[in-house]
């Protein structure tokens, strides 16, 4: 699949007409979002969304309490080592934690969720000009995972767009709703700042200099994945997203309802609670590479339910599009031999455009001794 035309100044012009886009999505030139299906009043899940029994969600969940990190303690010098140690332990054990008192106003988070809701509520024809099956496009609206190649479809519509530096990309974002750029932009800038602070904490927990890769982190990529999971008539047969890890160094997730589940190192599933004002932080594949395997990417999935539609906004952070993540030299020694080759976002995009991520894992192609 050809890459989209992104010029050196990041301006983008689609070479495809709307008809051509539709023809790539399905043989009969139609595009069926999950939201469109739910508006038809379905009482059962269409066959293409029914998962094989091995992938279906079940009720067997661990009741273990999941970690919460209070970032106000970082501003108290005597308590900072305690937080660094807490982050070290949770990153090793789970690759996951929630943060509170992170500095992003609740009004900014609410505005982002509200404007995302408005976007998905638009008539389908209002969103179709953003529809694309090309994973390299800097802004794209679609459904499932890879609607062209998926053997089983997933109960999700999504909008993804590049975001950092925001001045390079915001003109490509949706113009409808009219307040989308302002409200999503405010949240995007705030979460970019938060991840820079979190990366310093995580690097310090790895016994690296807190300012390690400082410029690369500040100038790195940020992809906003705005996910919509409509009400599902048979939630025990379907998933919004299958078990997977993110490609990122770090992912920061805002959700309006419970639905995210993570897997621990014992392969037990945990339902992530909704904590008012909290944000979810997850390690990704690129963090596993950078840490030379000390911190693993967390396996997670999105469940659906029959009563509430759910929104999540995931901010995925890594190095810039043209840069590669490699193991930190300080984390390679006789006890920790070099275990990963370098990888970047372009490698990941090439991978998902040709692979079924339900059956293949991006991290496996980065391991030197899989």
From TrEMBL:
UniProt record, GO biological process: coumarin biosynthetic process; response to molecule of fungal origin
Location in or out of the cell: Cytoplasm; Nucleus
Keywords attached to this entry: Cytoplasm, Iron, Metal-binding, Nucleus, Oxidoreductase, Vitamin C
GO molecular function: 2-oxoglutarate-dependent dioxygenase activity; L-ascorbic acid binding; metal ion binding
Domain of life, per lineage: Eukaryota
Gene3D superfamilies the record matches: B-lactam Antibiotic, Isopenicillin N Synthase, Chain (2.60.120.330)
Pfam families: 2OG-FeII_Oxy, DIOX_N
PROSITE patterns: FE2OG_OXY (PS51471)
Cross-referenced InterPro entries: DIOX_N, IPNS-like_FE2OG_OXY, IPNS-like_sf, Oxoglu/Fe-dep_dioxygenase_dom, Plant_2OG-oxidoreductases
Chief location category: cytoplasm
A GO cellular component annotation in the UniProt record: cytoplasm
Domain Fe2OG dioxygenase residues, every copy: 220-319
Family to which the UniProt record says this protein belongs: Belongs to the iron/ascorbate-dependent oxidoreductase family.
Known function: Involved in the regulation of shoot development and salicylic acid (SA) homeostasis.
Name of the protein in question: Fe2OG dioxygenase domain-containing protein
């Amino acid at each position: 699949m050809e890459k989209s035309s992104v010029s050196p100044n990041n301006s983008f012009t689609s070479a495809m007409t709307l008809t051509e886009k539709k023809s790539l999505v399905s043989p009969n030139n139609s595009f069926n979002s999950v939201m469109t299906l739910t508006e038809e009043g379905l009482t059962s899940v269409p066959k293409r969304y029914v998962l094989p029994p091995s992938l279906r969600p079940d009720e067997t969940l661990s009741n273990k309490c999941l970690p919460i990190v209070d970032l106000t303690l970082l501003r108290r010098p005597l308590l900072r080592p305690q937080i660094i140690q807490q982050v070290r332990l949770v990153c090793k054990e789970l690759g996951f934690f929630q943060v509170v008192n992170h500095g992003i106003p609740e009004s900014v988070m609410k505005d982002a969720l509200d404007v995302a809701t408005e976007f998905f509520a638009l008539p389908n024809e209002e969103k179709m000009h953003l529809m694309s099956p090309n994973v390299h496009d800097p802004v794209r609206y679609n459904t499932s995972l890879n609607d062209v190649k998926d053997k089983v479809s997933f109960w999700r519509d999504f909008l993804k767009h590049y975001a950092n530096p925001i001045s390079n990309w915001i003109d490509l974002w949706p113009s409808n709703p009219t307040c989308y750029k302002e409200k999503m932009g405010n949240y995007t800038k705030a979460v970019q700042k938060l991840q820079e602070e979190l990366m310093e904490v995580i690097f310090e927990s790895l016994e690296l200099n807190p300012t390690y890769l400082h410029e690369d982190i500040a100038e790195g990529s940020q992809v906003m994945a705005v996910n919509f999971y409509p009400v599902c008539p048979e939630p025990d047969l379907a998933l919004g997203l299958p078990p997977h890890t993110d490609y990122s160094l770090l992912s920061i997730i805002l959700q309006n309802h419970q639905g995210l589940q993570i897997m621990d190192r014992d392969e037990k599933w945990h339902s992530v609670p909704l904590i008012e004002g909290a944000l979810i932080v997850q390690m990704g594949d690129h963090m596993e590479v950078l840490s030379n395997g000390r911190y693993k990417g967390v396996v997670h999935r999105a469940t659906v339910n029959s009563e509430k539609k759910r929104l999540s906004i995931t901010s995925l952070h890594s190095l810039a599009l043209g840069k590669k993540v490699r193991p930190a030299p300080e984390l390679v020694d006789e006890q920790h031999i070099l275990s990963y080759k370098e990888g970047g976002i372009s490698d990941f995009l090439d991978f998902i455009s040709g692979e079924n991520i339900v059956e293949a894992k991006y991290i496996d192609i980065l391991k030197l001794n899989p």
